[in-house]
Design a protein that fits this description.
heterotrimer; A mainly beta; B mainly alpha; C mainly beta; B: Cytochrome Bc1 Complex, Chain D, domain 2; 2 domains; disordered N terminus; C: mainly beta; Immunoglobulin-like; 2 helices
Chain lengths: 108, 257, 159
């Protein structure tokens, strides 16, 4: 099972209005400065690329380094255009990819 | 006169056993000693990182595993009903073998005997996720463990451990959590040391962790001998902790420093 | 019993409690700096600015003045609108004065956002000044800073 994530968007939004998007991802955001129980250094591994697409169009992106806390949490706003899907994708330094999606109904 | 003192001592001993040292009116959850930021993180279901484990636990709950090919949900049906209040009653004495078990051990017992799957390791993502999911169903419900009948001996064992001095520092749990709660210890405020938030997300761990892990952190602090996760003494101690927190609401997954 | 005062070394018991506390906590206290709001001197930030001068006042960076634990500190960025066409925010970068990797994050808006508000949680290796730089579509820069005092620093440098 993938490490897991949670997404929250309003179920219904009005056209032209900004709406709140929340996402949190299970990821250690390894700094590269920690050692494991055996004293072996743990390689740096953060989600360096995060992108949110709205009906295919990139609307928000982030580059997150070791300065972002483990299990990263992001809250941001997107402007409502048409009903459809928000798709989130990310990739970490180990090349591991994750994704999540949410559907949205736009009125007005 | 002598008999009077003896009687008093007996009475005192008795009340000591029957009522927690911190009266119900003074009971305070550990979260109340945290900063406003920490409290906000715990109470906002989205900002609370522990909810990542709860959600993972929900998926695991529905996934068939083991040679029996059954999911937790196959037997327990609706989790929100079947599991409501369960975590508030744990640890309990297991009817079949008369051992005291905590929620983690109960879940593992279902894994091995019902699902015919290997037990999950202590502090593994999956065991934490299932425990958080199960405990979350009791959120807000008051802790209410039983210490009567077969539980009594385990309770006594837990209480004895709690009040005994341990480690190079020669300190008891009570030295900090009963005699000095509310006081600052370097950067931290000592709380009353209750178990109601666990499994909890600790900022220091950057992860969810069990009550056993939190207790081990305290044992480490006083340079005491470690208790293994499956040490019956540890579960007995957890039973005593739940009893002295009787009435505090389950917060799992809590957020702590 | 007085609760709201620090434990002092008044008795052997208290002494032991305090010593145990040192082992329990991973504290590295650092003094809080009190300076007028100016950009902290961070080579990576200077390189990012490349001699350009940002404006102060419109971009807001919100961090708690006192953070319990540097492993996860709630951070909010705001930039109130409205934005004239061609003057929208295109990106916001976040810099730390003390972290071994000074550039903590960069947020990009590929399309003009109607509302600029971002929340996340950052790691801070000690008390410091954090800086945010917003870039507008016309190239204008807006800056904000925040001073944070961290009681338990995130272990970001292996020490």
């Amino acid at each position: 099972m993938a490490a897991g994530s949670r997404v929250q968007v309003p179920t219904e939004v009005r056209r032209g209005e900004p709406f709140e998007v929340k996402i949190s991802v299970r990821h250690p955001m390894e700094t590269g400065f920690r050692v494991d129980d055996m004293g072996k250094p743990i390689a740096r591994n953060t989600i360096h690329e995060f992108i949110c697409r709205y009906n295919g169009t990139p609307v928000f992106a982030a580059n997150l380094g070791s300065g972002i806390a483990a299990n990263p949490y992001l809250r941001f706003f997107v402007t409502a255009l048409d009903s459809g899907e928000l798709k989130f994708e990310w990739v970490d330094d180990a090349g591991e990819r994750g994704d999540a999606a949410a559907t949205l109904r736009v009125t007005g | 006169m002598r008999i009077g003192i003896l009687l008093l001592a007996l009475l005192a001993g008795n009340t000591f056993a029957q009522t927690p040292a911190i009266p119900a009116s003074e009971l305070r959850s550990g979260v109340s000693f945290g900063s406003a930021e920490l409290r906000a993180m715990q109470s906002d279901d989205f900002a609370n990182p522990g909810m990542l484990w709860v959600e993972r636990g929900q998926k695991l709950w529905q996934t068939p595993v083991g040679s029996a090919g059954r999911a937790c949900a196959s037997c327990h049906s609706d989790a929100s009903l079947a599991l409501k209040g369960v975590a508030a009653r744990y640890p309990v004495v297991n009817a079949s073998d008369r051992r005291v078990i905590d929620l983690e051990a109960r879940i593992n017992a279902c894994r091995t005997s019902q699902q015919k799957a290997p037990a999950l390791a202590a502090e593994s993502e999956d065991l934490l996720a299932l425990t958080a999911f199960v405990a979350h169903q009791s959120r807000g419900m008051p802790l209410a463990v039983s210490i009567s009948d077969s539980a009594r001996a385990f309770f006594d064992q837990g209480r004895d451990f709690y009040y005994a001095r341990h480690g190079q520092m020669d300190l008891s749990c009570a030295d900090c959590h009963e005699h000095n709660w509310g006081r600052k210890l370097l950067a931290e405020t000592i709380s009353q040391g209750h178990p109601n938030a666990y499994p909890a997300y600790r900022l220091e761990w950057q992860s969810l962790g069990s009550l056993a892990r939190r207790i081990r952190a305290c044992l480490f602090g006083i340079r005491a001998q470690m208790l293994a996760s499956d040490d019956p003494q540890l579960t007995a101690l957890e039973l005593f902790l739940a009893w002295r927190a009787d009435g505090l609401p389950v917060e799992a997954p809590g957020v702590r420093r | 019993m007085k609760r709201d005062e620090p434990l002092t070394v008044a008795s052997p018991l208290r002494r032991r409690i305090i010593v145990a506390g040192a082992a329990l906590a991973t504290t590295r206290a650092l003094p809080l700096r009190a300076e007028p709001p100016a950009l902290p001197s961070i080579p990576e930030l200077d390189a990012y600015l490349a001699g350009r001068k940002p404006e102060f006042g419109r971009l807001l960076l919100d961090l708690p003045r006192l953070a319990d634990d540097g492993n996860a500190v709630t951070m909010r960025l705001f930039m109130p609108g409205p934005f004239a066409p061609g003057m929208q925010v295109t990106s916001i970068a976040l810099f730390s004065e003390k972290n071994p990797v000074p550039k903590m994050a960069q947020f990009d808006f590929p399309v003009a956002p109607a509302k600029v508000e971002i929340e996340s949680r950052v790691r801070l290796a000690g008390s410091q000044r954090v800086a945010a730089i917003a870039t507008l579509a016309d190239g204008a820069l807006h800056a904000a800073t925040a001073d944070v005092s961290v009681t338990i620093a995130a272990c970001l440098d292996g020490s």
